Structures are given as C-alpha cells and as structure tokens.
Amino acid sequence: MKKDNVFNAGQLDKETQQLTDKMEEEAKQRRINFNLTFSTQAGFEVLRDIALMTHMNEISFDPMNARNTDFREGERNVFLYILSNLSDEMRAKIIIGG
C-alpha cells in the first residue's frame, strides 16, 4: 500500500475545521456587507422596494396557477435570504417599519 493512500483522520479533521472556519468567516463578512449596504437611507429604501417587489407581505399561493405560486415563492425566497443576512435591529426595522 502506498503511503499517499493511507487515511489520516487527524489531517482530515484539520482540513474540515479549516474549511468550516473559512465558511464561517465568509458568512460573517457577508452579514457585515449586507448591513453596511442596507443601513444607509438609500439602502433602506432599496430594501423596502425589494420587499414590495418580492411580495414579502403577501400570500404566495395562487389556487388557479401552481406555476405562479412557485414563481412568487421564489421571489419571496430572495428577500428572505437578504433578511437572513441582516442584524436583528435591521430585520425589525424592515418588518415593523421605520
């Protein structure tokens, strides 16, 4: 058996942790970027416009057209993704109004 093919659990654990750390750092930076982007007055107005455009406060279900339901739910998911990357304070501001 070649030495290269030997399973090294310690190395795998180390690489997994490095990848996890990198992903967490990227997520943290993404949240910072989203909050910076939408914390300005102009950014907040754009966010409110996106909420309206994606039908955030409307029911997605269309009993007459399943494709329309799917499409509208996809639009809502875009806004929910943005919302999930905002701070609690920003989420409250957009949901409650501000």
Give a summary of the structure in a few sentences:
This protein has 98 residues and is an all-alpha fold. Helices cover 72% and strands 0% of the residues.
Verbal overview:
There is one protein chain. The protein is mainly α and 98 residues long. It has one domain. Helix content is 72%, strand content 0%. It is built from 4 helices and no strands. The longest helix has 30 residues, at 9-38. The mean pLDDT is 89.
Which stretches of 5+ consecutive residues score pLDDT under 50?
none
Largest sheet entry = none
How much helicity do the residues have? over 70%
Number of helices: 4
How many structural domains can be distinguished in the coordinates? 1
Strand content: under 5%
Helix and strand composition category: mainly alpha
Radius of gyration: 21 Å
For the secondary structure, the number of strands is 0
Termini, distance in Å?
A: 66 Å
